[in-house]
Design a protein that fits this description.
homodimer; alpha/beta; FAD/NAD(P)-binding domain; 6-stranded mixed sheet
């Protein structure tokens, strides 16, 4: 036992899981540690938030995925520290795990750009809990609008603001538009859900910043067609109980909105900051740790950082984006380096990210994609998106199920998972409003 | 608007929904009020608790179910009081709804027989939140056992006690046995999930008390075959962090168990007690309000109580059981009485419960059923159970999906919804233990 090379992997997301799987046949002893017992298919999390899918449908138990991989133990635990000299990863409960190689794949947190009080009013879409909280917030807003005393109050409950027009912001606003215009259209007696305002705000002068410009134009057209109002070059200056305050040019405006969703940037987790401290590493503005071209931490060749927590650069020095593909390829690369070292091979060439393309989905039969430089939009891009996402869902079972569900919803506009659950729902309507603010901020 | 007969229905469970649907073509104006925005298919809740189904799969938004029924408004709100003289139902936020006829279908709470401190350690299976808390507790126990320092500690985490051997207790213990023996069998490295002890405790001398005796015998045989230890004629005297204390004959024993599930009795909700006070009605030992043979409250012919909250009796004076069938038939009957009164017809014959039979499922291909007096057990009973439950699930969509999922699981023993979610899971392993105790008690 003790003679084998010990690999500790922190995090069971796309990167950590790929690393573990690529070490399947290596003569190593792997311990994969995650705070959660499941791997989450994050790209579909917005569908949980908008009531199309249930959490179980986009998650797979890590233990189940790796159960046949005999050289791997899976543990539930949260890493809080690393001692790079003693080569130990330390968990919150004090347990320490010695490693010969450490692969850190713990990801990032949502950043409110220093305005942490906004978190209370504008949840982001990182975890299953946040996704169900957002679902709750959206469905509850229509319920409150139906019972509102004045048209102004109803209006505020029927105004939805999404901050940030990246892929997640577009997905959320498109899905929200479909909920209001199609799914709920016959469900209320006093309000008309079709009159709901859905406003997508972006600081940059165009949506989908990292995409080629023609696809940004196309994406804005597609989402506007669904009834979403797109405000570009605006700066959000405050978010509170009343709504959103923002600057457009020189004027400051206030928009009364009871539902604000945050699709903004990322920042380091406390563990990420700790690791940077311990290894005396440099971080970028988003708190991502700058790694060598082989994804190791400078001066610590036995510590790899992969996925969102790593600030890695390509041949031209351009930082790699925080997407699933980079994480998976990074995990596979780290595994390859470890295997090569064990076999006494020379250093491998640096990590090369092979970009298969990028996509963003806006609604049913509406998406944009950039595949090997070919720009596609509309139904074809959407079909490609559906196909690729189904392929990648880890468990076969989830694949079958998501497929059945989507097929059904495509034809009926219904949404199967429209539950308001959690603490808030069990309390009265009035208490609820304050409750989910609490749960979102935790 | 104001001239129509106003029917207020409190509760959107089996009873409330049936009442609303049977009044679809009546010249009335219906307001259905529920604390939750969804109708829950409670008989399958144990499958959520044991990780086979996701909450969204056994729930349907009430609004969606009734969206085409133009004479009905659905509102999210919690009834806290009734003024039977002024004919008004009052919600927690102070809103009052005037009625001409009131149908109360708000159900009951779990009873710990006066030992409310047990609730903290032994959650029951009433709501979606409790079901996911139970799922969390079960899966987390295996995780903790894998990391236990001593064999004793591992043993306590691998000991599961279910208190109460009615249908719910049998379903839970059978499903737990399958999780331990099949689903998780390859997933751990230090512990053997197949060695988990699952103990079903019952105060009465046999399981499934309300069923014919031969089916009780059969059910015990089936659940024992799955590896469940059945303890009959035992009295639980305490439940705490260490486990369960119980009396068998004259001796008192303590069983170290970290996971205890409560499948015991029911009691009145605060609203139920309030209603009894306001109408000066009698309640039975379980807090159910004694109603007339036409399901109205004595002296208040305009208030109907249906479902679990009603203590109704049949021709022979035997109380009707608290099952979905009684609630649905009660709802339909109340609707019929209201229609008859509006049409000026004479009083209808009293409510007659038509018992189509009773079933309890124990595991895959294992169930017992009593259909019109014919006793069936094993695979045939199980197939009947699957068929009947699929038929009754309200939404077509859920039906397709549950069917696909079950088919898949039947052949693979996998469970799709093995997520540990909620507050506890986001915290460290150690904090978690105390966290879910809190969340269960809320």
């Amino acid at each position: 036992m003790g003679e084998k090379h010990r690999v500790v992997i922190l995090g069971g997301g796309f990167g950590g899981l790929a690393a573990a799987q690529k070490l399947k046949r290596a003569p190593v002893e792997i311990t994969l540690i995650d705070r959660r017992n499941f791997h989450l298919f994050q790209p579909l999390l917005y569908q949980v938030a908008t009531g199309s899918l249930s959490p179980g449908e986009i998650a797979a138990p890590i233990r189940g995925v790796l159960s046949r991989q005999k050289n791997t133990s899976v543990l539930l635990g949260e890493a809080v520290d690393v001692d790079p000299q003693a080569k130990r990863a330390i968990l919150r409960d004090g347990a320490a795990f010695e490693y010969d190689s450490l692969i850190v794949a713990t990801g990032t947190h949502t950043s409110y750009y220093g305005n942490d009080s906004w978190r209370e009013w504008a949840p982001s879409l990182k975890s299953v809990e946040e996704a169900t909280a957002i679902r709750h917030k959206i469905l509850y807003a229509f319920e409150r609008a139906e019972r509102a005393a004045t048209p102004e109050e109803a209006g505020a409950w029927l105004t939805f603001v999404i901050v940030g027009a990246g892929a997640t912001g577009l997905e959320l606003s498109g899905a929200l538009a479909e909920i209001a215009r199609e799914t709920l259209r016959h469900d209320f007696r006093k309000i008309d859900p079709q009159k709901a305002r859905i406003i997508l705000m972006e600081g940059a002068p165009r949506v989908l910043g990292p995409f080629p410009e023609d696809l940004s134009v196309k994406a804005e057209k597609l989402v506007s067609r669904l009834g979403v109002e797109v405000l570009k070059s605006v700066m959000v200056t405050n978010i509170d109980a009343r709504g959103v305050t923002f600057k457009r040019g020189d004027s400051s405006e206030v928009l009364a909105a009871k539902t604000v969703l945050w699709a903004g940037g990322v920042t380091a987790t406390p563990f990420g900051r700790r690791l940077a401290e311990r290894t005396k590493s440099e971080s970028d503005r988003s708190g991502r740790i700058k790694v060598n071209r082989d994804l190791t931490v400078p001066n610590f060749p036995d510590i790899f950082i992969i996925g969102d927590l790593a600030h890695a650069v390509d041949e031209k020095g351009t930082p790699l984006p925080g997407v699933a593909q980079v994480a998976m390829q990074g995990g596979a690369y780290a595994a390859k380096v470890i295997r090569a070292r064990l076999e006494g091979k020379k250093e491998l060439p640096p990590f090369h990210y092979f970009n298969k393309g990028e996509m963003a989905v806006i609604g049913r039969a509406a998406a944009v994609a950039n595949i090997f430089g070919i720009h596609v939009s509309g139904l074809l891009a959407w079909l490609m998106w559906v196909f690729i996402h189904l392929i990648y869902i880890v468990e076969f079972q989830s694949r079958v199920q998501v497929f059945v569900q989507w097929g059904f919803e495509y034809f009926t506009f219904s949404r199967g998972a429209r539950l308001i659950t959690g603490q808030a729902a069990t309390d009265s309507v009035d208490q609820a409003a304050s409750m989910y603010n609490k749960s979102n901020s935790s």
